[in-house]
Amino acid sequence: MSIKSFLAKRMAQRTKKRIESWSEKPIETQQKVFERLIEVAKKTKFGMDHNFGEMTNIKDFQSRVPVRDYEAMKGYVDLAVAGHSDILWPGRPLYFAKTSGTTSGAKYIPITKQSMPEHINAAKSALLMYIAHTGQSDFVDGKMIFLQGSPVLKEVNGIKQGRLSGIVAHYVPKYLQKNRLPSWETNCIEDWETKVNQIVEETINQDMRVISGIPSWVQMYFEKLAHKSGKKIGDLFPNFKLFVFGGVNYAPYQSKFEQLIGRKTPSIELFPASEGFFAFQDRQDRQGLLLLLDSGIFYEFIEASTFFDSDYKRLTLEEVQMNVNYVMIISTTAGLWAYNLGDTVMFTSLLPFRVKVTGRIKHFISAFGEHVIGQEVERAMQAALAQSDAVVNEFSVAPQVNPGEGLPYHQWFIDFDSEPSDMQAFRHLIDQELQLQNSYYRDLIAGKVLQPLQITAVAKGSFDRYMASKGKLGGQNKLPRLANNRDIATFLETQDPVLM
Predict the structure, then answer these.
(1) pTM of the model
(2) Which of 484, 486, 456, 489 is nearest to 370 (CA)?
């Protein structure tokens, strides 16, 4: 065992004890986080506008601070971006993580002196908890890669701006610098295709042991490696021990990854975002991701089924239940207050609190009142793949409200790596599983309001071309799994050839 591996195991045990100390008393931990947030921010503009100084409990906070998304908070954020101090959090942010927005163009998410370390500590803790529970630490002696955005930052009004993954690249610990790939120069390449090709050149002959990134972009990297080397990834990198991912559900990609790698590889799932690092997979033998309760984030939850009602209820951890779909609301040391992150989660455990990410509250199909969510289409696809010989690269679902003939339906656009030998049987498997997942969808089929879903196979790489057309190819960008409109569908049908 190397010295680095030995020290990693020592650090892992300390981290495990620290995490157990707060996870065993979650309500008390969250109460302390809440009180600290309010106390520190009470003299900021936001704090004074909402009478933080007079708040005595969480109910006061909920009555005075409404749930807001980015657009609703934009007035405060714009002041901070302009360089003003003490707007959302004391002082000025260290950085703004720049992300693609919706109705307001680019989004600028503040990262402060207090919130920045939490991103780094959470990522480090995820690896250390894996070591603590498995005893596997020799991956620290090999090369590691994270497929990320450019670390080149732009300074505006004295505050640096860039992608979160690019900002985080500046905080890689010194003891990992020699292990880290790709080179700084390659990381700075903006064009994703060019960047991945260069990463392949730099890593193909290295002892890669940890590979991290969003599954769709890691898949592209693997495919290019396999094409260039003529080998399975597991043969090319025999010491490849750990895949770290986040951002999307891995299950729809798993069969393709195992085919590319040539074997199963242990993995760690993360739940990071520009707004904060919320959870990670702390155990290989447990379902769900450990919710980080001691990281400067106070959590509230709203049942997704009531979110668009005017009288929804904001719940704390004391009030949540398992197997209910919730919209996650956060208040943080970055100065986000009762902020609608847009992600939906479901609890898989209440002691400790573990969650699984179920989708996006804005990414759903409810053209006919069915309210199908991301988790449901992913489960349906996963179930169908388990019972067929198909291999899928990527897919997205859209409603077809006005078909040329017949009843409306859900249209599944699928990039197949290998088409099923019986497409109709595959279609039936997906549709039946989706009906099991969603009773509203089942009732609409039974009531002859909808016909069963239809599959449209698209040319390989179509979804990459769509993302490129939006300037979102690579990095942390993710293809929407489903939408309540036909924006993606229109691109695929008019700009990119469909196969059937």
Answers:
(1) 0.81
(2) 484
